[in-house]
Amino acid sequence: MHQYSGKLILHTGSMFSGKTSSLWKDLNRFRIAKYNVAAFKPTTDTRDGLHRIRTHDRTEMQCTPISSMEEVLEAARTEPMEVIGIDEVQFLQDHPTEIVKAIQELLDMDKTVVLAGLDMDFTGTPFEVVKELMPICDYLTKHHAVCANCGVDAWVSYRKSKERDRVVIGAQQEYEPLCRKCFKMKEEERLARENQMEFLSETQKA
Ligand SMILES: [Zn+2]
Fold first, then answer.
1. Which residues are registered as beta bridge partners of 140?
2. Low-confidence ranges of the chain (pLDDT < 50)
């Protein structure tokens, strides 16, 4: 029994904000303290191979790919693990309610759960599961990247390409962290550009 058993630690924020590095740092500290640590990440996140979590500063950790929280529960029931880390929770395919339920079950088993996940998508809309987890966690850190446009703390991961799907894996270079003001400005510019394109194609048809 240690002070973090049965506790939920959440690292959230935009892309490039250091969430995964913080998850890595936490898990590494528990490992140094000789706790049994297991790391997981959703199979949808294939960027660095299925069996490792890699931070932007290139530190790595072995992990188990999961397609559902049920696999974490199963592992927690059968293997000796005291600390459970999950990266990119927003990519889990289970319904947010199911994810929260599974995490609560892990906490009831006195596991320490450390999560990292994006708070919002590229439009500034919250990822449901992170929205559910934020109030119920014991420790919450919202991390910030630096606004690529003006240098203050960033707020959102802005997608520079025209791709509008909510999740596009392996396209990190397509994103830049922006603060609220710069995000608003770029969105207005994008909408104006799109309206103009639409107007041009309409006039061409006419
Ligand atoms: Zn800015």
1. 10
2. none
The pLDDT tens digits for 84-130 are 999 999 999 999 999 999 999 999 999 999 999 999 999 999 999 99
What is the per-residue pLDDT for 45?
Answer: 66
User: 192: CA distance to ligand 1 center in Å?
Assistant: 19
What residues pack around ion ligand 1 (CB closer than 5 A)?
A: 147, 149-150, 179, 182
- Bridge partners (DSSP) listed for residue 42: 66
CA torsion 128-131-137-142 (nearest 10°) is 120
CA of 184 to the centre of ligand 1 (A): 9
Place of tokens 């929260």: 100
Question: Distance, CA 149 to ligand 1 centroid (Å)?
Answer: 5
Which whole-number Å values give the CA distances from 160 to 37, 56, 147, 189, in the listed order? 37, 20, 14, 12
Cβ-based neighbours of 5, under 8 Å, separated by 6 or more: 82, 110, 111, 112
**pTM > 0.85: yes or no:** yes
Q: Output the CA 145–ligand 1 centroid distance in Å.
A: 11
Alpha-carbon span 171 to 180, nearest angstrom: 22
CATH code for 8-145?
A: 3.40.50.300
Q: Tell me, what's the pLDDT at 197?
A: 85
Q: How far is the CA of 16 from the centre of ligand 1 (A)?
A: 15
d(CA 12, CA 116): 6
Catalytic site positions:
88
